[in-house]
Amino acid sequence: MVNSILITGGAIAGGEVSDLLIRDGHIVEIAPKIDAAADEVIDAKGMVLLPGFVDLHTHLREPGRENSETIATGSLAAARGGYVAVSAMANTLPVADNSAIVEQVAAIGKSVGLVDVFPIGAVTKDLAGHELADLGSMAHSKAQVRVFSDDGNCVSDPLMMRRALEYVKQFDGVIAQHAQDPRLTEDAQMNEGIVASTLGLKGWPAVAEESIIARDILLANMVGARLHICHVTTAGGVEIIRWAKAQGMKVTAEVTPHHLLLTDESAKSYDAIYKVNPPLRTQSDVDALRQGLVDGTIDIIGTDHAPHPVESKECEWQSAAFGMVGLETAFPILYSTLIATGRISWKRAIEVMSSAPAQIAGYERHGRPLAVGEPAHITIIDPAGSMRVDRALLASKSKNTPFHGMDFQGRVVATVFNGILTHKVDLRSVAHE
Ligand SMILES: [Zn+2]
Ligand SMILES: [Zn+2]
């Protein structure tokens, strides 16, 4: 059993170059030169050490849809992507709308032991939108749920949303809303616009997302509860959140890596790999999302890792499932689009990948600075290392990535979770690529 790791010559949080020693799950020393024996030594020259990543939006599919993903395969995908904690969405079978299921998910996550798996509880029973789930029993269960979401579905009934916000306010919980008016998006297949018209597919107007974002911001403000907007995709949505934050309202928001990179033009291929909910939008939306992440309007990157088996994606667009896997490619996309270009600093990258998601969800042992005495959750990045995405090599049980064959800079070369090395690439092979 490896219980000490010495990481030499890495840039701590993108700043000063130091050695860093981990023992028994904690960071015990940071100094220019550490002479200590360790079970494992990692040469991190030229690399950057970041606080371990936290994903607030992961679909792990277990229980019930283990043909797409299991907590074990999803945890491994997370570790490979540099994550040390993931929030598991509630749309499993059965739905995680009671204390038994959330405790089961947490227990399996713990036994796998590659990342902390924090279950998200459903807002309404069976995600049906008709009756509030037992939020209190999930909050007070062993899983200590603080984030609630019907993700996949929108909590569209405003009275239901108000009650949920009032309920979670009692224990400083947060409602994570999949903002999508169901009436405006019935049978919708992709973004409403020129491409949808050309393909003859039913469109999904931006206002279906923006109207719910606006409504829920106002509701949450009235109640005085915390609201988190999942996967913002439209320029208008960014603008509404920017306005709300300027008023001092308690709202946080996330963007996915795929919405930072891809547009509805991809759908011209008619390849259902690009079918995702919410849909890929336009270049001006992508530009606004990037700007929102840069200026703090959008708080975090959430992967919306949504594994689906091949038969659900390699079929006609209309019958294909919505979703893409994302854990293993999230950071390289962020690096290539915004860090390498200098638009966001390492400090901001740490916020969006680690400290802000931990803070929103109340994960107290995560998102901590790299300092002596802190839990050893560390992601090591090789900024010069490139990664060619090969779906066959993904740890995820599902291979539905739209990035197959694409090259990204900013490779995740190692992940340390609780002082244990959960991922490490052969560093020499990286250097020779
Ligand atoms: Zn969603
Ligand atoms: Zn989702």
Q: What is the strand and helix layout of this fold?
A:
Blueprint: E1 4-12, E2 17-23, E3 26-31, E4 40-43, E5 48-51, E6 53-58, H1 71-80, E7 83-88, H2 99-112, E8 116-119, H3 135-139, E9 147-148, H4 158-169, E10 174-177, E11 190-191, H5 194-199, E12 203-204, H6 206-223, E13 226-229, H7 235-246, E14 251-255, H8 257-261, H9 283-295, E15 300-301, H10 310-313, H11 330-339, H12 346-361, E16 378-388, E17 407-417, E18 420-424, H13 427-431
Parallel strand pairs: 1-4, 1-5, 6-7, 7-8, 9-10, 10-13, 11-12, 13-14, 14-15
Antiparallel strand pairs: 1-2, 2-3, 5-16, 16-17, 17-18
The structure holds zinc ion (2 copies).
Describe this protein's structure.
With 433 residues, the chain is an alpha/beta fold. The protein is 30% helix and 22% strand. It contains 13 helices and 18 strands. The strands form four sheets. Strands 1, 2, 3, 4, 5, 16, 17 and 18 form an eight-stranded mixed beta sheet that branches. The longest helix is centred in the middle third of the chain and has 18 residues, at 206-223. It is globular. The structure holds zinc ion (2 copies). One zinc ion (ZN) is lined by residues 151-152, 178, 230-231. One zinc ion (ZN) binds at residues 57, 59, 89, 151, 304, 306.
